[in-house]
């Protein structure tokens, strides 16, 4: 027995209480304690065993402190088999969450009862693996193949009611887990209920596993773990239980050794590390009980919606009554979406859209706001005027935030008498849906203001990343580089449609030109005009064919035509033939003879441009760590999660080979393809980007 397991005897029932806060993770001490508890219960003559968790949950999964380390005995599959094989009647009582290994332990018991608020699930595919302690063999036997495939490949959690209907649970009862578990175990003993090992139940009915494998692989855009899990469930249908367990372990081991598992584990830990900044140790954020939002367009309405859903009263400022009414309509539409999805009740909808939302047309209405977020047109002079007004109208200590995507936050802050209160909060559209929040720190931003930004991000359910000031910050600066690379390839012989397909093949949901159509081509057009007005370097390649599209009024999806054509009667977007006519004209104008590009070359250049610029961003301190880049690209730019982010991908692919390719590309364009100093430094020292994620001495 270990301290992580409390043993007690209640009549004929031995009670094993898992006591390993905060989430009763199934670390070695818990596994040792459970095995010892089973031994003791059998040796002392108990007739039944109850397993439950203390504190807030049943075991909620594996111990993340053991990730990446050699496994230690007793291994979880062996423990689950030990529990199931007991001659005693074994019951689990679930409260909180039984996820991953926690649910596998519960499935190894003979009966399962839960509180009404309990949730269960097998989310292992999110970490690049599959349930490896019998989950793919036992769950199909109690819930059927279809339900097991759904739960395992989607990684979704289900509530107690659904789990009961699926056969995962036997009963739901109100009360403390220990008490309902004891009552259930005693009732089973009183009625002479038999042991009921799941492994001895009949094999589940099969489905078309080949078709399901293909569908899951396609849905996951190449992520292997959900598809491989299909094969493990197939084994539950086609093999005896012990052989099915062996097949599950074989597939689990294959996934453990994959690059995708490395990428997903990296993403998991990077998300937990991204908000841990030494500069904020001991810094108390300012209190934010209400916020103001300036601008009620798509972005401003989305920010206001996110704040309302997080329980923050919002005052939204527009310049005219007509614009104010339109802003209210957008916010109410967003809230109606939350209502339809069951995220909020009708009563809460009415409260949020009524008393918690105030629409105003005067800056004076913002005088009591603790934090104000500006979301107006992306023009430096407009934003400076707004901040001068905020400086005059907002109370002392109010945080003044800009949602700018590119502009110089130091210049914006200089328009106020309190630059220490100014911060960038760069949301991504739609702001009430997208998880990423870039927190941009200007030269004079006070530490408690930075802490306030991170506290707000947490309250809004965002993944917040610290960024320094430069054109585009982290994400948009890197985007500009790999998008420029794509444009260069188009001029040199590729097509936008081939590039989109190659990028989707890598695992992105959309290619860069599909994304542009979705966002609106006018956004990129405005950015290009701004950069040209500031003065382009004579060595830079300036691509203009997309300007011709915009001049003709083609802005993508919102106008029905951009790089693709959209509209009623079309099964999907079709390539716009006008695009290649414009490209051909620009090639002729610039004397470019097009050549063929393979998909492999397209992807190699695209990723090299992304990683090279990301290395500059880290080297200049705009991003403090490579993991900040990875989290930004994962949550804001559709980078495939199973590849871990561009920096992790580069580490796994090999920095030396990547640098060699970049130097090769530089022979044709030494301005764009100048290698980042940090990349050269790491290769020279035989190090990786990941070495920069852990401070020296940790």
Short description:
Its main location: other. This protein is of the alpha/beta class and 698 residues long.
What distinguishing features does this structure have?
Rossmann fold, single chain, alpha/beta, 2-enoyl-CoA Hydratase, Chain A, domain 1, 698 residues
Task: Walk me through this protein's architecture.
- The protein has 698 residues and is of the alpha/beta class.
- The protein folds into 3 domains: 5-257, 2-enoyl-CoA Hydratase, Chain A, domain 1; 288-467, 3-Layer(aba) Sandwich (Rossmann fold); 475-692, N-(1-d-carboxylethyl)-l-norvaline Dehydrogenase, domain 2 (Orthogonal Bundle).
- It contains 28 helices and 19 strands.
- The strands form 4 sheets. An 8-stranded mixed sheet has the order 12-11-10-13-14-15-16-17, sandwiched between helices. A 6-stranded mixed sheet has the order 1-2-3-4-6-9, with helices on both faces.
- Helix 8 (209-219) packs antiparallel against helix 9 (224-238).
- The longest helix has 21 residues, at 599-619.
- The chain is globular and about 85 Å long.
- The two termini are 32 Å apart.
Would you count the extended β strands for me?
19
The helix/strand class is: alpha/beta
Major sheet: size, sense and barrel closure? 8 strands, mixed
Q: What is the class of the largest domain in the CATH system?
A: Alpha Beta
Which secondary structure elements does this structure contain, and how are they paired or packed?
Elements: E1 5-10, E2 13-18, H1 28-43, E3 48-53, H2 76-85, E4 89-94, E5 97-99, H3 101-108, E6 111-114, E7 119-121, H4 135-143, H5 145-154, E8 158-159, H6 160-166, E9 171-172, H7 177-190, H8 209-219, H9 224-238, H10 241-256, H11 259-273, E10 291-294, H12 298-309, E11 314-317, H13 321-340, H14 346-353, E12 357-360, E13 371-374, H15 380-393, E14 399-402, H16 409-413, E15 422-427, E16 436-440, H17 447-459, E17 463-467, H18 475-492, H19 496-506, H20 512-519, H21 521-534, H22 545-551, E18 564-565, E19 574-575, H23 577-590, H24 599-619, H25 626-636, H26 646-653, H27 655-665, H28 677-685
Parallel strand pairs: 2-3, 3-4, 4-6, 5-7, 6-9, 10-11, 10-13, 11-12, 13-14, 14-15, 16-17
Antiparallel strand pairs: 1-2, 7-8, 15-16, 18-19
Helix pairs in contact: 1-2, 2-3, 4-5, 4-9, 5-9, 8-9, 9-10, 11-25, 12-13, 13-14, 18-24, 19-24, 22-23, 24-27
Domain 3-hydroxyacyl-CoA dehydrogenase C-terminal: 472-566, 603-687
Keywords: Fatty acid metabolism, Isomerase, Lipid degradation, Lipid metabolism, Lyase, Multifunctional enzyme, NAD, Oxidoreductase, Peroxisome
Organism: Cribrihabitans marinus
